[in-house]
Specification:
This protein is 43% helix and 21% strand. Strands 6-5-7-14-8 form a 5-stranded mixed beta sheet.
Length: 318
């Protein structure tokens, strides 16, 4: 491959000199003579239009431009190596690679366990897990950067498949809190309590704020956090109460918290996004189907644990 007049051999010679600080060692690594290395470097400098090294007593000292050029060469070289390795894996891999992107709540509460279960059933499967903000995920799925996306952005789009779900909200209480004596938490129980909530534009936070306003309930204070995991830890430390979806609450049982259902509706809606069938790799289709089954099982387990009506979750096509 040549680009803008320089060759792979010239770039390789340059990289070996930078790595070893020796033209002789570079020649040994490339199995060529030292004069050949020197000739390639001079040709590269001529074609670049600037010096890569200064010569001092038979030593090659990188110039500032040479150092900057090496940084970029190394970045591109690493990228090319990654592409070669990825292509090799695609050629030999049977089960494929599953790329999952999720909003943080499910990324933390569901996918570590789900991925482990998938890996047992599909031992050759390579899994990549990413956590992005919900608003970003639909565009990433449209661009086919991932195989599965989970987001609270429930807008349908003809460029992907959707499965819609709804989860009930539940209340997390510090162990020993007086409200732990109640079986169900009423909205007015939140009066003068410290609430730990998501960011102002987050789905559950908006519903909580609306309900508090409509019923003239005034918490003592509201703490704002970016992640449900942070809310759980704050509740466990006795900072306040939090309202989370049932799946996140089920995961929160690892901590010293109590969970109670709500007498008012704080529904948590989301969608699982899949590529259109024509864009699904054949080896990935059964893996994706099993992933959906495991996610739905996690949803149902969380609902059953907190004694909710099984009909509290819904699924349907857009």
């Amino acid at each position: 491959m040549a680009h803008r007049g320089f060759t792979d051999a010239q770039i390789e010679a340059f990289m070996w000199i930078m790595k070893t600080s020796s033209a002789t060692e570079a020649a040994n690594r490339m199995l060529v003579s030292q004069p050949a290395i020197s000739r390639m470097i001079k040709q590269l400098e001529t074609r670049l239009g600037f010096a890569l090294f200064e010569r001092h007593h038979n030593r090659l000292i990188p110039t500032r431009r040479g150092t900057l050029f090496y940084d970029e060469v190394e970045r591109v070289h690493l990228g090319l190596n990654h592409l070669r390795q990825f292509a090799e894996r695609l050629k030999h891999r049977a089960a494929g690679q599953l790329r999952i992107v999720s909003m943080p709540s499910f990324a933390m509460a569901v996918f570590p366990a789900v991925s482990a279960a998938l890996a047992e059933q599909f031992p050759e499967l390579e899994i990549s897990l990413y956590s992005f903000r919900s608003q970003q995920i639909p565009e990433d799925m449209i661009a086919q950067r991932f195989d599965v996306g989970i987001t609270t952005d429930t807008r349908p789009d003809p460029r992907y498949q959707s499965r819609h779900y709804r989860l009930p909200g539940v209340c997390l209480l510090p162990a020993g809190h007086p409200l732990c004596a109640k079986r169900v938490i009423d909205l007015h129980d939140l009066q003068d309590e410290t609430l730990v909530c998501g960011e102002p534009d987050e789905q559950t936070r908006r519903l909580i704020t609306q309900a508090l306003t409509e019923h003239s309930v005034t918490p003592r204070k509201i703490w704002t956090v970016s992640l449900g995991e942070m809310a759980t830890r704050l509740v466990a430390n006795g900072t306040g109460l939090a309202i989370l979806n049932s799946v996140s609450a089920f995961d929160a049982l690892r901590y010293a918290v109590e969970v109670r259902p709500l007498s008012f509706d704080i529904d948590y809606t989301f969608q699982v996004i899949l590529p259109l069938e024509k864009n699904v790799e054949a080896t990935i289709a059964p893996v994706t189907q099993r992933l959906i089954e495991l996610v739905e099982a996690s949803i149902q387990q969380s609902i059953d644990t907190f004694s909710f009506n099984p009909d509290a979750t819904r699924q349907g096509a857009p």
